[in-house]
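Input for the complex:
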Amino acid sequence: MCFKNLPIEFDAAGKPFLKGGIRDPYSTKNVITSVSEVQQMPYDTVRELLTRNGYIKDVDFDPVTRVAGALAFHGVADLENRKFIETRSMATLFRGYEIIMQGRDPRDAIFITSRACGVCGGVHSATAALGIEMAFGIKPPPLGIIVRNLLLSLEFLYDHPLHLFLLAGPDYSEMIVKATTPSLWDKAVRTKAPNAAFHGYATLGELMTDMNPLSGKLYLEALHMTRVAREAYVVIGGKYPHPETLVPGGVSTTITLQVFNEVYVRLQQFFDYSKKVVAIWDDITNFFYEANPEYKKNGMRATNMVDLGIWDDPDTYDATYENCGEWGEKRWATPGAIIDGKLVTTNLQNLNLGIEEFIEHSFYKEWTNGENNGMQHATDPLGAPLSPFHPWNKQTLPSPGGQNWREKYTWATSPRWDRQVFEAGAYTRVYNTAMAQKLRPNPFMESTGHSLKLNLPAAAMPEMELEWHIPEVWNTFERNRARAYALPFTALAAMNDWMKGLDLLKKGQTDVSTPFEIPKTNRIGVGFWGAGRGYLSHHMELDKGLVTNYQIITPSTINASPQDAWDKPGPYEEAVLNTPILEEFDKPENYKGIDLLRTLRSFDPCMPCTTHIYAGDHTVVREINTCACGVDG
Amino acid sequence: MYDDPTVSSGITADEAIELVQGKQTLAVSKKLSLGPLTKIHAFWLAGMSCDGCTIAVAGATNPPLEGLLNGQIAGLPQLILHHPALAVEAGDAFMHNFEMAERGELDAPYVVCYEGSIADETIAAAHGGYWSALGAENLGTDKRRPIPTTEWLKRLAPNAAAIIAVGTCATWGGIPAAAGNPTNAMGVMDFLGKDYRGTAGLPVVNIPGCSPVGDNFTETVGMILLFLQGLGPLPEFDELGRPAWLFRDTVHNKCVRAGFYEEGVFAENYGDRECLVEIGCWGPVVQCNIAERGAINHMGGCMNTGGICIGCTMPGFPDKFAPFYATPPGSTVSSNSSRVSGAVIRRLRRLTMQFQNQESRWEEDGHIPSGWSAAKKPSWTSQAMHYVYQKLQYSGTSKPGSGLVAKGSKRPPMP
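Predicted:
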């Protein structure tokens, strides 16, 4: 079935069980089959080359700018052969959120974990609320689910333009292209833009000029649109980035027609804006590919990605772990794991069983040494086997130390799925949904198995059908292009939910929350959700009405992760190793590293969430988490 | 409208001169001087932060961040921002300006904006590590030492014109300083001490909020700059360094739901439209202006939408307000007394409203021509009370229009 490396098999009814006959089934000594084959050059060889070859150059970026949070990146470039021979990704921030959550009222997780990330904090609040609902055994009324969906769509409508034009965008602007690849700029000025009718720029050069930071019209327009989305967001959430209205069992927003109106007036501006944004990124991508096909290798890596889905179906979601397979697949964004380009599962339980975190190269101590590998939970609530490295079993034992490229060098951990290196992103949401063909019937979006069709209603621009196709290679440009398509995907998911909300009002189903009592017994729960950058989970354990363990896995922890127990590089590290150096420079001293920076920024690193909570005195630490928000180095 | 992207791109003075050559009506001049400063540097340091304050400030519209950065607000100097999330450069090229500032080599004064809590780096350093770092220095081949963000604050503080702590982490420690935290986190004031003064003479300026209202930051910066230009008054700060005009009142003072509190009506469930105190709102004791100002572009605001106040602007946040969803104990006295007085006030008001909801014409005609439903007629007791009410209302004056009414007629004559 879906696992190649984990010791999990499925019976005839599809129920997972632990494979027999293996003495230490989860040992990291066990051999695995890996999809990606990229290797770092041996440490000592690199050191030797550094001392005797002028074209072998340390390329250290601390900080990596135009990413959220504290990310540093170390690379060694071979400027003669125009490739990278060594890469290390570093999260340079630790805040200790996990211990802070310990012993608190579980409802407080909604407010406290939001503060893990100020770029998209609401996703943490929502994920915490979902986990608490599972642990408490409550579910929100339909309108509560719809309003929560809308809130988290509006968050992405702010987040996608932020990435496309304020963070990653400037790398494709006149200012940067001219400075790093003058010949490419000359070509851009002479190249007619195929989508001129949709974005209004006759040539690629004109388009790139308007992407210049702070002065370019596209930059300023995106900044404006992030505000438009946030205005709608605060109508529901009160404030941004940390919303005030998410509660277990729904929302505390007072819903009136004014809310529906003020949200829609802003949401619908994204229909036309999406048409323009997609046209722009299609043109940029195609221009680079045609100018130099080598750009297809920028940020290239195996097509391994995992997402948990987002935006629940109010008719199916019941917050239970027992039914997570069913309600997960009904989400507007389908959950799923893609390994080597193949969708291997869309079942949330399987996705949960496959996740593990490793800390061989991170500033933490092992927690699996004790009796029974330190395991609290040998199985999930349905009796399926759990790894000692699974978040429900994990403890966070921070141990700050000096940077050592061979040993420990980051505050991020190494999340792996079925022991494969995978990446997370808004693009993963698009990719999974396109492949899975699980979309509920709706007027706007269609999954074909090889593409995602998006029908945008007419506004000032005519109605348009956009179609995102599964790309031949997975690289920097495809990440950005799919991120552009994530904008209309998000807007249309929101449109579906907005219409469903009106329908509920018609039927008089106006409740937005479910009353509850805090259970005093031992409970576990998990919130499966997504951040602006993809995969987000909160695993929690409660006892006597208080939090006893809280673990967060964020997308940037995943993407910024260091090498794992098998010395396989994390996604940033792997993507940079595959990146050819196409920058134009006269001598090594003037090399700027644009190809590497484009690669890193295509993941939209967001390091603040890479925060960890530990219990004091260096004894028991449970990791709350790492969202890529703090890991990008 | 600052927020309109189409007006922000601007043209250079040279281009403008070129445009107007040969025309009589427009001309570019350089006669006006609105103050001594034409530019000022701002170094944005993010310690143990979530970047939420950066995001909040990027959403500001009064004035908007890009207006400050592009130098397009008349009278204000251009703000040259060195911010890791917005910079064009990366790595050492980005850090170069920080080093120049430390050495006093910049061409203009600088301020430091600090976001996030200050980590106690002595704890991490004891193990040869760090909690939070920005940039690194070379210690010979292949050896780099990450520079703790706290160290940067120490290096830049002495020559900074002013230090502005942005958000509750930087002002009071915030969530990283909550009970149980391993990093001994604290705010900027805790770190620099009470005697710290920037070269402009100010102690640390504190703009709290988790995250703060973006306008509260850009407005304070704008007002400090106007003062330095000789155009504005010295902005007033309270005893904790908060802008007094923004944080003097409690958020409840200007809450859109405070009227429900006055009438003793409280939300019981999440989503209810009444006062939120009973379901966990701390607004009556929290100094904040979000209900009045909104979160962004005057929209949103916690209680405005149904969100409880969790005290995120206050030095006691988060522990003194947790568990957040429990009813604050103080409300047992205050909300019960408002229930008692509110019950009386509410009834009297409803009575008055019964009459204020009627045109004078309807009263005279004795019926209400509404097709929606049958409006209830006031009882005799209500009418008697209303008679007294009107006597009080017009005592010492006269009822509007009463002089125009002809004797024997209820209505003024037709012209």
